[in-house]
Amino acid sequence: MPDTKSLTIGALAARTGLSVSAIRFYEEKGLVEPFRSSGGQRRFLRSDIRRLSFVLIAQQMGLSIGEIEQQLTSLPHGRTPTQADWTRISKAMRKMIDKRIAELERTRDRLDGCIGCGCLSLKKCKLYNPEDRAGLKGPGPRLVLGD
Question: Which of 85, 96, 109, 129 is the most exposed place for a label (fewest CB within 10 A)?
């Protein structure tokens, strides 16, 4: 009798739209944890469909694999996540996203000033080298050298 509670890697790929190699990559990163059948084949829980769907959505929102892994550690293994589980993750992700938005807005505002300046000079640039502070440490690309 076939096991109806688990999925082969091929069945999981068909359900998620991911390639088998992508699922293996996410397994390697610890985002899904299959178990082995008596014949040694990978088997995945049905809840892994939602875990991988979350991974795809989070990546589209710009989260790194590390950030996604951090959020997935709070999800239960062996059962489908509940609304409360997703709400908890959503609140944590909101903080990360708000921080990223603030960083992007600061970058945009600085970039507007840089484009408007037109100096194209690291010696004068108020964004990269205010008041030529790097020049005080000697000649050459001091900012690139890590001074």
Answer: 109
Check residue 78 and give left, alpha or beta (phi > 0: left; psi -120 to 50: alpha): left
Residue type, 1: M
Type of residue found at 136: L
Amino acid at 133: R
The whole-model pTM stands at: 0.65
Judged by phi (left if over 0) then psi (alpha if -120 to 50, else beta), residue 86 lies in alpha
Give the mean pLDDT of the chain: 81
Query: In which residue are the tokens 């990269």 written?
Result: 128
Q: Return the structure tokens found at 39.
A: 């014949």
pLDDT, mean of residues 32-56: 91
Provide mean pLDDT across the span 21-35.
Answer: 94
Rounded to an integer, the average pLDDT of 50-68 is 89
